[in-house]
Amino acid sequence: TTMFYKRIKSRLPKYIKYFKRYSKIYCFEWELIAAQSYQESHWNSKAKSFTGVRGLMMLTRHTARLLGIKNRLSPKQSIKGGVRHLNQMLKNIPDKVEGEDKMKFALAAYNVGMGHIQDAMSLAQKINLNQYLWNDLKKVLPLLSQKRYYRTLKHGYARGSEAVKYVDSIYNFKDILENTIEDKKTKTVKSKNN
């Protein structure tokens, strides 16, 4: 968290215009997209994972190609692609998932893949949980790494507990960002009034 506060000052200013621009196109809160990007790459435009995903939004080569992104290391292209990809995930979430849960499902799908979200929903239904509620789905996602569950599912093994942590972290970072921005606005108003 301490490092996040430091990077809000040192790294975020370089990318904030892209977060705002591309979030606005899809009516997303820019703070959510910025928080997701931080969770993905710590706002390191040259980030690379052991699986080969790259850039601020950690796009795979295949996903980037499908989105028309030529350079995953370009902050502008990475954010544009990441926001478009999240929007695609959101469109694939069933209408019965409502409110903020819909975004949480989409973020989890961004992390673990839509097929695994569908598997988790199917499993939730089998074990008498509500497949359309995030609070129930987050109980089921970690089960996707247990053989007795994943061997019966269409898309097999997944690190589902990572998707749960991913979504929780994004919302924590988003809250910090919103509070930090709000604190700055309050201080600015106070200084103007004095």
Describe this structure in words.
The chain is an all-alpha fold and 194 residues long. Helices cover 67% and strands 0% of the residues. It has ten helices and no strands. The chain has helices at residues 2-10, 12-25, 30-41, 61-67, 75-91, 100-112, 114-126, 134-140, 147-150, 160-193. Helix 5 crosses helix 6 (100-112) and helix 7 (114-126) crosses helix 8 (134-140). The longest helix has 34 residues, at 160-193.
List the helices and strands and how they pair.
Elements: H1 2-10, H2 12-25, H3 30-41, H4 61-67, H5 75-91, H6 100-112, H7 114-126, H8 134-140, H9 147-150, H10 160-193
Concise synopsis of the structure shown:
By secondary structure, the chain is an all-alpha fold.
Low-pLDDT windows of residues: none
Number of strands: 0
The helix tally amounts to 10
Overall shape: globular
- Largest sheet, strands/sense/barrel: none
β-sheet strand percentage: under 5%
The radius of gyration computed from the alpha-carbon positions, rounded to a whole number of angstroms, is 18 Å
What does the oligomeric state look like here? single chain
Overall mean pLDDT score?
A: 94
Helical coverage, percent range? 55-70%
Q: Whole-Å distance between the termini?
A: 32 Å
What is the H-and-E element order? HHHHHHHHHH
